[in-house]
Amino acid sequence: ILTRLNPFPEPYLLVVKELKSLKPFFSGPELAREMAGRGWKVGIMARRVELLEQLRAEYPREITVAAIDLRHTQDSIERFRALADAMGGIDTVVLNAGIHLPNLHFDWKIDQEVLQVNTVGFIALANAAAVIFLKQSHGHIVGISSIAGTRGSGKSPVYSASKACVSNYLEGLRQRLLNTNIRVTDIRPGFVLTDMLQNRKHLLWAADAKTAARQITGVICSGNKVAYVTRRWRWVACFYKIIPQFLYDWIYGRYITPKLVKAAQNERSMAEKNAGEKTNESLSGKEFQDTTF
Fold first, then answer.
1. Fewest CB atoms within 10 Å of the CB: 44, 98, 104, 255?
2. Domain ranges in the chain?
3. What is the fold, at CATH topology level, of the domain defined by 2-242?
4. Tell me: the pLDDT tens digits for 223-250?
5. What is the pTM assigned to this prediction?
6. Contacts of 147 by beta carbon, 8 Å cutoff, 6+ apart
């Protein structure tokens, strides 16, 4: 379908990936590898572009890499447009811009960075893609949200809220682009075993990155409006939605919130201990200097 709609001799894919995620649910580089292996021309952007050099070495003709930092919105838009021009045009954009930073002490700077990348940066590039696709009268915007956006989460309120924002935005964007030749897809992954989650293989229905990439590629080619990866996470989402509020709150209060409180206390105690040790070291050094003089 993508090839049929494509005025170029081969489909072009642009993957935008924020590689700072501490708990990634999806591997952008693995998807780029999957698509390049199928003969697509792929552009992939990330904050730490050096991490993508292996990809470019594997597929020097198919893959182009470029740096992007979604904390700087206007610069990101300009870099996005520049890469699209350098590729000679694009047909599909996959936006996987998301970071997940632990914030046990309600530090606004942490939450602000998550919102800047996950929502502001995401929407800015989606808008930029829409402008390109409207001019060429075709295109496909694929957004990677998360199963975490189904309901609020006491473990990560801002992250889950940012992913809910992404899903709602993509739904609205799809409606805005009705009667055009532009498709919009919302992909909602569950747990995917990227490098940072290899030691957490006990996670529910955790899929390896290659399996997730294959399924996402299939979704892109089929043009589905909403898809879960892996597919069985759809049933988890349905279950989340029908849980009564009082029961949902009780589960958090009984099993999750106490663990969060304990983790915050432990973190605070460790910080105070480290601060005390540094103070003692400073005092010891001062006493030593006083005696030498």
1. 255
2. 2-242, 245-293
3. Rossmann fold (3.40.50)
4. 889 989 877 878 888 888 899 999 989 9
5. 0.79
6. 25, 188, 189, 190, 228, 233, 236, 237
